[in-house]
């Protein structure tokens, strides 16, 4: 990852996939420089999110296969293994304080999805 | 009692009652009343559950049967001497001496020496291969001898005694797998103390159908053989060849120590005590099966526990006495319920007797009613003791009977259970007779102290911890109290959909909705979640049976349904092709082996007679299925909340016992209901005869062949809370059987809460099996036709979802780990090797 960091404040955008590679109201996994990132197309809200693909609970590469939804108004994803749920906005685990995932900014242009890495 | 100095209590005997006394004394300990407690036991083990001894051959270990571990005694300051019986009591010096020479002084001595097996004075009882049935050691001897005998030319065992214990011992013989198992009874019927001739006849037929051979009116003259038993000769001149014999002809109170110490004993055995359980020496008490109270020996555990309670209370200064105790009993004998309560044998003109007998189903019920028709005096239940607890309470509490008392055993024809249920019982009704806990005590714990589960009630009151027979009543009581408090909560799906599953299903159906977003837009709020999405997905599939991955439905499926495979540790999937009824050709077996080798899969036979292939990368799933489908396989839906498998035994095509072709029927049933989505998974089984090798009674619906057709059972469950299925209809033909299953399944699909198995659904159903029967068999709701039509639609629209995926490029492309590098597999997947196959890497 280090090589991609141009500046501490600056975001480097990586082409991740095409819009229709990600199922509507669901997720898909992309490989960016050896890092597995889950991308979610939350079509009901017209929003895109990206997080670690790994669930920190049992270190399983599975979050992209999880169901998304909302808790109150907070967008979230549920890990398919043990249903730990994480905020898609800030990566905080919503049903177990001990866990946290990283989130990444997403940009969609001309049918292409880009992930931002600081 | 002297409150200043330490009271020294010594208990002789560490059986169930001896242990219960220690437990009672410890919990009753009061400030200022301090004591030391010493326990001597003859056996090498701490006190264990002798009532369920036969469970030892059924997979339970000695530890499972232990009442409290040795550490419990240490924690409570109890000195415990095992394998060290007391051999002498010096009543002058007030001290006991053990076999190993331990001398302990006492202020109070409690004799809980129990009983031994009564061995009648018959020639040859000393021969090898003759056993008694009392202790775990006895069972170990029997087991190792039976193993030896099985290597010999024959393996034939017999039990002498057809009473309660004798039949328990006979079960042990069956569990040991002996080829022949005989029961020899001196009287003209089985269980002569508990049930009458008609009840015994029904019981006998049930036991014979399971392979027991029953010999009544048999008086044994001698046991034959050189050093080892080879047969039994009877006084009527007949004989029986056997390799082993278990004597279970009654009990003999262990009073030899009391006799030696000069205490008064009964001429026919037993230590004579008064209503305070005090022997002829006021410092010495006797409790349990060694004691003669009110001129009798109480050979059951519940009165023994009550004796422990009385003595423990008296030592703590409370005034309590032992009253004549009810000898009602209910037990399961080799799978058959037998209950006997109050006065089972009283006959006309002292009472009016109502009997019900159904030989086909093996059910006999008798109730004895006072001549004025107001009170229940006693009764007998064989084959179905479901009403035992209610009847016992009605009898004990002298509850005024309804105008048609036959409803008590037949159930009222209005569909409701007779009487007002457990909530109608008086406050002082004894619910748990082992621990003497009343209804009002339980209601207080449930209502005031918030113990609303069986587990927490067990901790708070010890109810249900003895024989467990009161558990259903206690469950009803919890429900009843909660309902009274207005605690009934409507079981809505989640924050997004404020409907129960049943309500939502009706709405989706009426409005003909086919996508999740339509449902949420019309009836919900927010964006959904991992609870309501799969619930709606299941409803949509149950109603319309369209492919679950189309029209945006893939992302509302639970992970397994989304990838049509079961996710496993490490993120790989397992694959289960359908093998209907467990029948498979050698060619298909070879294909499974070839596919497993090609894709590097771990293979294992499942509990449902199929083959599970583990460790498949998500990207390999369509390739694997392409090959399996080419060979004629279909999806097994192991990933779905839908029909899993219909297990079968081989049935009449090969088996010498089979009465119907269970395999063909299982295949037909599996093909009929495959792929149908339901609130939870559904399992089934078909057995070709009453031996039930397919374990159909543990399934959501199970079918057992009879001479005349099929018996249909519903609502069974394995898992963490196993439950036997209940008989819905008997001796029906195949067409009727399928018709009832159609109705049953569709009624379940339409009314159950999400992720609720049929067993739980039925347990929650008001009216239970009676109501279900009324709906499914008698069609009281008039919905049978509709249910059948809806089921037929699902059957007619079945398609293999895996075939659809491999033929559809849009769906197929979703089976990949990285969407930007579809050809690459997840590099974090790691396997380890075990027994020449691979396994998932253990997670941290």
UniProtKB/TrEMBL annotation, chain A:
Report any Pfam family annotated for this entry.
Rieske_2
Annotated GO biological processes are: nitrate assimilation
What Gene Ontology terms describe what this protein does at the molecular function level? Answer: 2 iron, 2 sulfur cluster binding; metal ion binding; nitrite reductase [NAD(P)H] activity
Mind listing the UniProt keywords for this protein, alphabetically? 2Fe-2S, Heme, Iron, Iron-sulfur, Metal-binding, Nitrate assimilation, Oxidoreductase
Query: CDD domains, alphabetically?
Result: Rieske_NirD
| Keyword Heme annotated | yes
Chain ranges of the Rieske domain: 13-115
Record SUPFAM superfamilies: ISP domain
Out of the domains of life, which is the source? Answer: Bacteria
This protein is called Nitrite reductase small subunit NirD
From the broadest rank down, the organism's phylogenetic lineage runs: Bacteria, Pseudomonadati, Bacteroidota, Cytophagia, Cytophagales
The protein's gene is named nirD
Automatic annotation (TrEMBL), chain B:
* GO MF annotation terms: 2 iron, 2 sulfur cluster binding; 4 iron, 4 sulfur cluster binding; flavin adenine dinucleotide binding; heme binding; metal ion binding; NADP binding; nitrite reductase (NADH) activity
Q: Name one Pfam family in it.
A: NIR_SIR
Occurrences of domain Nitrite/sulphite reductase 4Fe-4S (ranges): 640-765
Residues the record lists as binding siroheme: 693
How cofactor binds (record note)? Answer: Binds 1 siroheme per subunit. Binds 1 [4Fe-4S] cluster per subunit.
What positions does the domain NADH-rubredoxin oxidoreductase C-terminal occupy? 328-398
Where is the FAD/NAD(P)-binding domain positioned along the sequence?
7-295
Matching entries from PANTHER family are given as: NITRITE REDUCTASE (NADH) LARGE SUBUNIT
Name the record gives this protein: Nitrite reductase large subunit
**From which organism does this entry originate?**
Larkinella terrae
């Amino acid at each position: 990852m280090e090589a991609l960091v141009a500046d501490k404040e600056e975001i480097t955008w990586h082409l991740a996939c095409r819009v229709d590679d990600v199922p509507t109201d669901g997720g898909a996994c992309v490989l960016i420089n050896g890092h597995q990132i889950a991308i979610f197309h939350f079509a009901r809200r017209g929003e895109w999110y990206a997080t670690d693909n790994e669930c920190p609970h049992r270190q399983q590469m599975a979050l992209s296969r999880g169901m998304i939804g909302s808790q109150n108004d907070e967008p979230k994803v549920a890990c398919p293994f043990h249903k730990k749920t994480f905020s898609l906005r800030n990566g905080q685990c919503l049903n177990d304080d001990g866990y946290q995932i990283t989130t990444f900014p997403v940009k969609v242009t001309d049918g292409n999805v880009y992930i931002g890495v600081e | 009692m002297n409150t200043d100095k330490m009271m020294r209590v010594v208990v002789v005997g560490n059986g169930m009652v001896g242990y219960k006394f220690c437990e009672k004394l410890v919990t009753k300990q009061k400030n200022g009343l301090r004591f030391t407690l010493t326990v001597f036991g003859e056996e090498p083990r701490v006190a264990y559950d002798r009532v369920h001894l036969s469970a030892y051959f059924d997979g339970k270990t000695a530890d499972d049967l232990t009442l409290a571990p040795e550490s419990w005694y240490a924690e409570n300051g109890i000195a415990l001497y095992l394998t060290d019986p007391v051999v002498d009591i010096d009543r002058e010096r007030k001290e006991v001496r053990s076999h190993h020479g331990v001398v302990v002084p006492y202020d109070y001595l409690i004799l809980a020496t129990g009983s031994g097996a009564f061995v009648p004075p018959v020639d040859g009882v000393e021969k090898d291969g003759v056993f008694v049935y009392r202790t775990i050691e006895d069972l170990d001897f029997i087991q190792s001898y039976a193993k030896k005998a099985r290597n010999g030319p024959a393996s034939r065992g017999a039990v002498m005694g057809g009473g309660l214990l004798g039949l328990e011992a006979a079960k042990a013989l069956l569990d040991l797998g002996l080829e022949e198992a005989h029961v020899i009874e001196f009287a003209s019927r089985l269980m002569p103390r508990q049930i009458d001739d008609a009840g015994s006849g029904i019981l006998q037929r049930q036991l014979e159908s399971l392979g027991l051979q029953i010999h009544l009116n048999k008086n044994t003259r001698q046991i034959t053989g050189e050093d080892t038993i080879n047969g039994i000769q009877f006084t009527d001149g007949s004989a029986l060849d056997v390799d082993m014999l278990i004597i279970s002809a009654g009990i003999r109170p262990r009073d030899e120590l009391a006799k030696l110490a000069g205490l008064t004993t009964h001429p026919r055995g037993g230590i004579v005590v008064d209503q305070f359980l005090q022997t002829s020496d006021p410092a010495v008490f006797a409790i349990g099966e060694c004691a003669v109270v009110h001129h009798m020996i109480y050979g059951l555990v519940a009165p023994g526990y009550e004796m422990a309670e009385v003595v423990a209370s008296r030592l703590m200064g409370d005034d309590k006495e032992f009253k004549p105790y009810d000898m009602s009993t209910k037990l399961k004998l080799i799978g058959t319920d037998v209950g006997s309560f109050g006065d089972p044998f009283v006959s006309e003109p002292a009472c009016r007797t109502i009997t019900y007998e159904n030989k086909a189903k093996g059910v006999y019920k008798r109730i004895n009613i006072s001549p004025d028709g107001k009170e229940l005096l006693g009764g007998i239940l064989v084959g179905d003791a479901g009403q035992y607890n209610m009847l016992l309470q009605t009898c004990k509490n002298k509850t005024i009977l309804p105008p048609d008392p036959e409803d008590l055993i037949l159930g009222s024809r209005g569909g409701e259970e007779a009487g007002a249920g457990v909530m109608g019982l008086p406050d002082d009704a004894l619910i748990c007779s082992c621990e003497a806990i009343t209804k009002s005590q339980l209601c207080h714990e449930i209502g005031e102290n918030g113990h609303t589960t069986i587990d927490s009630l067990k901790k708070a009151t010890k109810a249900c911890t003895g024989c467990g027979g009161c558990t259903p009543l206690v469950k009803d009581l919890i429900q009843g109290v909660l309902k009274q408090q207005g605690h009934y909560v409507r079981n809505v799906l989640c924050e997004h959909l404020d409907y129960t599953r049943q309500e939502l299903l009706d709405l989706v159906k009426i409005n003909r909705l086919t996508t999740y977003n339509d449902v949420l837009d019309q009836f919900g709020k927010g964006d959904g979640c991992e609870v309501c999405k799969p619930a709606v997905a299941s409803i949509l599939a149950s109603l319309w049976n369209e492919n679950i991955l189309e029209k945006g439905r893939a992302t509302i499926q639970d992970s397994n349904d989304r990838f049509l495979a079961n996710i496993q540790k490490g993120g790989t999937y397992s694959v289960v092709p359908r093998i209907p009824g467990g029948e498979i050709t050698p060619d298909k077996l070879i294909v499974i082996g070839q596919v497993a080798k090609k894709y590097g899969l771990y293979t294992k036979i499942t509990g449902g007679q199929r083959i599970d292939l583990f460790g498949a990368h998500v990207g390999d799933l369509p390739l694997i299925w392409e090959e399996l489908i080419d060979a004629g396989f279909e999806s097994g839906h192991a990933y779905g909340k839908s029909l899993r498998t219909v297990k079968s035994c081989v049935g009449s095509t090969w088996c010498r016992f089979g009465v119907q072709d269970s395999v063909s029927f299982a295949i037909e049933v599996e093909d009929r209901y495959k792929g149908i989505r339901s609130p939870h998974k559904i399992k089934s089984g078909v057995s070709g005869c009453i031996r039930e090798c397919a374990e159909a009674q543990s399934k959501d619906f199970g079918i057992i062949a009879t001479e005349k057709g099929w018996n249909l059972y519903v609502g069974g469950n394995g898992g963490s809370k196993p439950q036997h299925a209940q008989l819905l209809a008997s001796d029906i033909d195949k067409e009727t059987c399928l018709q009832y299953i159609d109705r049953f399944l569709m009624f379940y699909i339409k009314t159950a809460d999400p992720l609720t198995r049929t067993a739980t659904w039925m347990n929650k159903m008001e009216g239970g099996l009676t109501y279900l029967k009324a709906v499914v068999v008698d069609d009281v709701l008039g919905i049978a036709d509709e249910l059948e039509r809806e089921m037929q639609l699902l059957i007619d629209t079945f398609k293999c979802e895996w075939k659809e995926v491999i033929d559809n490029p849009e769906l197929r492309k979703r089976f990949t780990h990285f969407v930007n590098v579809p050809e690459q597999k997840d590099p974090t997947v790691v396997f380890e090797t075990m027994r020449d196959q691979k396994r998932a890497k253990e997670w941290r």
